Amino acid sequence: MPSKPDPELIDDVNPEWTRERVDQAISAKDVLPGILGAAAAKQTLRPRGRPRAKHPKELINIRLSQEVLTHFKASGDGWQTRIDLALKQFIAQHPNSH
Q1: How many C-alpha atoms does 15 have within 13 Å on its Cβ side?
Q2: What phi, psi does 77 have (nearest 5°)?
Q3: What span, in angstroms and rounded, lies between the C-alpha atoms of 73 and 94?
Q4: Which residue among 57, 71, 73, 98 is least packed, with the fewest CB closer than 10 Å?
Q5: What is the 8-class DSSP label of residue 46?
Q6: Residues 43-65: tens digit of each pLDDT
């Protein structure tokens, strides 16, 4: 048997979202231009975070010798990027080695 709701927790101004209310909701991209104007809405709704890379790196698993790891980790954060740069440099210096 469900318990009675606590009257102090009932919020008439912001009632609980039901499936019906969710289905009737209007997205911010449709509402904000009328409230803020097109430019401000576009700025407000822009994607957050780092922009997507044109050529994103691929996540892989690789086994490296302890010597290689120790060398690259010794210089601190960014050691994986430095390994990537070292491999790119090797490719540039040995273009026909595949």
Answers
A1: 6
A2: -55, 150
A3: 25
A4: 98
A5: S
A6: 999 888 888 889 999 999 999 99
